[in-house]
Design brief:
Helix content: 10-25%
Structural class: alpha/beta
CATH class: Alpha Beta
CATH architecture: 4-Layer Sandwich
Strand order of the largest sheet: 8-5-4-3-2-1-18
Number of strands: 18
Length: 283
């Protein structure tokens, strides 16, 4: 089990900034320091991770692995700047679907917009990236696992209907099969670090319990993708998280302000906004 005193989460990119000198940018990136490893979950939209690493005294050359929660640009667009800054070979862990032709078409939009990884794979490999892609879980240590594809088991969580994959001359709904999270087994219980949770926060939490064999969930931190959530989804999500006894809930990025405000009311002192520059410790 991970010693809570040796676990730290530093948010290097998020929609809003917690401190003067830290850059805010739509997207997410969280540095996870645990088990003697430095694991970067996502790389934000563009330059924010490289900028904020300097501002926060984080040396990107010490990052051991990058885990991509999925292939959307706001989670992968900083890859080039991270690799350029680190100047070393770096393993990039993800689902094969990260390279899918991903598009978005909001309900009031007239055309589809590309939302996938904005760089050719060959360019990133030339900068030191080594892609390790699998649909299943990837254990980074005995107590840390990148989930791989998350099963959808709840009946109230659904994929955002504005997301698509290009197929020939047309488009089909994107199941976001590449959506994954980091699960950490600690002495306090599970710490779940979300990228976007496109496949549903509770589906991620339930899969964390299944994969790790741990029932207790201490903390859920990251993007919860609740800004389009129905009232039923919000009610069920809150009830599940409370039933699990979650002690700390830190939301970011795609959670949405209305949903975040609701969660803040429900979870009180256990709730926090997880913004760029935020450092979470567990001692």
């Amino acid at each position: 089990m991970i010693d809570p005193a040796k676990l730290r989460l530093t948010t290097l990119s998020e929609n809003t900034a917690a401190w003067l000198g830290v850059l805010a940018e739509w997207g997410l990136s969280i540095l996870v320091e645990a088990d003697g490893q430095n694991i970067l979950l996502d790389t934000g939209l563009s330059i924010s991770v490289a900028h904020n690493a300097d501002a926060l005294g984080v040396n990107l050359a010490t990052v051991d692995k990058v885990v991509l929660s999925h292939g959307h640009v706001d989670h992968t667009g900083g890859l080039r700047s991270v690799l350029t800054k680190a100047r070393r070979e770096m393993e990039i862990i993800g689902h094969p679907g990260i390279w899918g032709p991903k598009y978005a078409k909001p309900r009031d939009a007239e055309r589809y917009r590309y939302r996938g990884i904005p760089f050719p794979r060959e360019e990133l490999e030339g900068l030191g990236a080594s892609f390790a892609l699998t649909p299943g879980p990837t254990w980074l240590s005995e107590d840390i696992v990148a989930s791989g594809q998350v099963p959808m088991i709840t009946d109230y969580e659904a994929i955002d209907d504005t997301l698509f994959l290009k197929e020939g001359d047309g488009f089909r709904p994107d199941p976001v099969a590449d959506d994954q999270s980091l699960f950490l087994k600690t002495e306090l219980g599970l710490v779940i670090v979300l990228g976007c949770a496109h496949r549903g926060v509770i589906n991620h939490v339930r899969y964390a319990q299944e994969l790790t064999g741990m029932e207790m969930v201490h903390a859920v931190v990251g993007g919860a993708h609740l800004f389009h959530a129905s009232e039923r989804q919000m009610e069920e999500t809150i009830a599940e998280l409370k039933g699990l006894g979650v002690q700390r809930l830190g939301v970011s990025h795609c959670t949405g302000m209305a949903a975040a405000a609701r969660l803040a009311q429900e979870f009180g002192e256990g709730f926090f906004y997880n913004n760029a520059g935020n450092v979470v410790t567990f001692a």
